[in-house]
Amino acid sequence: MGQDGKTDELPVAHPIVTQLSAEYHDKTTLDQTANAENAARHFTEAGNATNNAVEKLDRGPLSRLQAKRLGDYIIISLYHSDPEHPNNWPRKKKMLISFAGGLSVINSTIGSSLPSGVIDQISQHFAVTDELQLVLPISCYLMGYVIGPILFGPLSEHLGRKTVMLEAFIIYILFSMACAVAPTWASFLFFRLICGTVASAPIAIVGGLFADIYSDPEPRGFAMAWFTCATSTGPVLAPVISGFIGQSTSWRWVFGVGTFIALATLPLLLFAPESYLPVILSRKAARLRKETGNKNIVAATDNQKKSLRYILTVIMMRPYRMLFQETIVACVCLYSTLVYAIYYLYFEVYPIIFQGPDSVYGFSPGITGLAFLPIALGKATARGHTWVKQEEYRRLPLACIGGPLYSIAMFWLGWSARPGINFMAPIMSGFIFGFGIRAGHVEYMQEYRRGSFAFSFKTNVPYAR
């Protein structure tokens, strides 16, 4: 062993052979003497083509790569301490990726409730008289959340996080523009469905993206806090945006502004590097095969790739099996169904209570949007509470507090929203509502879905929405 802890390299004629398994990230090292004897026994007559390829690797710009021979193949990998490993990237590079991921999630969640402040204008423009159809612009978007995660999650592990997120985000921008110019009610709803489908890509991928670049629990925890903040803040900001823009221009400009916000986020995704290590190594191996002409250069993680059949029959079906075969998953998802149903119902109820001459308080659309801010404040307060930071309180005990507060807030809103009571009474119920959602649902779900098959459990959550 060298002083830096790495295995000493033998001459090219006698390389050390590392038996790579599917668990590439395992840091287990092999005995140097045994490897040397194994190399001498099996590869003393290795071909000149293989030797030349290894020499080119040693002299090339990627000399930091760990290149080993296994049979006729040259297998490249990265030491866990290598500067090119995503865990060891500079802080500025990680911050770029974190902001790109977080802002893409904010765009996704803003889009979910963007029509709430201008639903009256939309219904008048398309001559929609059935009040039951007025919930469809938000519902169709959320239906896209059902389709997207189960598709984009596995794709990100084959094509890369950046590739899938960037392409999905570009499609989101295009269909947001389409919503702004939709000629008919049916086309508008279809465009909303596509927007919701591709907007679910950041929600499905960003958690894995943070796991790629943060190996230490503390910075990864801060990153996940940024992620959960983005998912819960976006829906309550959208009514403020749509309310003020809609009352001064038209409903089409609401989606135009949403498109501009997405366009402002796009450069961050363009400049953010790929963070998924297996894809990084596969691309490096492909580039080296092209540079050296040796077809036997492969990445250490190539053997982790799964067939399309395995993805379709195992990975993509696992969330369904968990939902219908595991009681705790079914119960948690049923609870999520109730929570999200009431949460998004607020975006339909608040305009009835606060907005327009026929409402209880007769506010303008912009002021009605401001009524959602106490919900965001309640979520922020719950996120910063001391109990959330204590391991013994942050799961079920905190949910036992948040659950009743959630119900109390709904009772408060229903009984206080009447002409004889000041408007601040129903508005401040939103603070308790937001606190209850964050403490009783988000924190519990965030802790519950860690560990094995966390992606499969997380995929069920958008279905609940």
TrEMBL record:
Stretches that traverse the bilayer: 95-114, 134-152, 164-183, 189-211, 223-245, 251-272, 327-347, 359-377, 398-415, 421-440
UniProt-annotated location(s): Membrane
Major facilitator superfamily (MFS) profile domain segment(s): 93-465
Gene3D superfamilies from the UniProt entry: MFS general substrate transporter like domains (1.20.1250.20)
Single GO MF descriptor: transmembrane transporter activity
Record bears the keyword Chloroplast: no
Location, primary (coarse class): membrane
Keyword terms, alphabetized: Membrane, Transmembrane, Transmembrane helix
Gene Ontology CC: plasma membrane
Family matches, as PROSITE patterns: MFS
Pfam families xref list: MFS_1
Keyword Metal-binding: no
PANTHER family on file: MAJOR FACILITATOR SUPERFAMILY (PTHR23502), MAJOR FACILITATOR SUPERFAMILY (MFS) PROFILE DOMAIN-CONTAINING PROTEIN (PTHR23502:SF74)
Name of the protein: Major facilitator superfamily (MFS) profile domain-containing protein
